[in-house]
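Private note to self, pasted from the team thread so I don't lose it. Backbone tokens:
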């Protein structure tokens, strides 16, 4: 694997594993595997190329890779957004998106 460090952080009832590539610089990036991929390993080589001038975090979503399974079986979108610390951002995004859609329908 390309050079990186592995870290763990607690989120709700799970422990999340992530790999950190690069050094502080430009705006950091977060890359997430999809449902058809297994874990942060899938992003290792891409993340290392993106990390030439910034930090890139490749995260194992709950229940994947080195992240733990949820004892309460909570794999909801809200739980996943909490894991990446984006629930508030996501809710704001959805509010803006819905407002834009309403405005476009009203002409």
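Design output:
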């Amino acid at each position: 694997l390309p050079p990186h460090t592995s870290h763990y952080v607690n989120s709700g009832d799970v422990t999340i594993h992530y790999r950190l590539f690069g050094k502080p610089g430009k705006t950091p990036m977060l890359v997430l595997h999809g449902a058809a991929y297994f874990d942060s390993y899938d992003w290792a080589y891409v993340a290392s190329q993106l990390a030439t001038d910034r930090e890139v975090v490749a995260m194992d979503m709950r229940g994947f890779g080195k992240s733990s399974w949820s004892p309460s079986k909570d794999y909801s979108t809200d739980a996943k957004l909490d894991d990446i610390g984006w629930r508030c951002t996501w809710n704001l995004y959805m509010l803006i998106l819905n407002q834009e859609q309403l405005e476009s329908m009203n002409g």
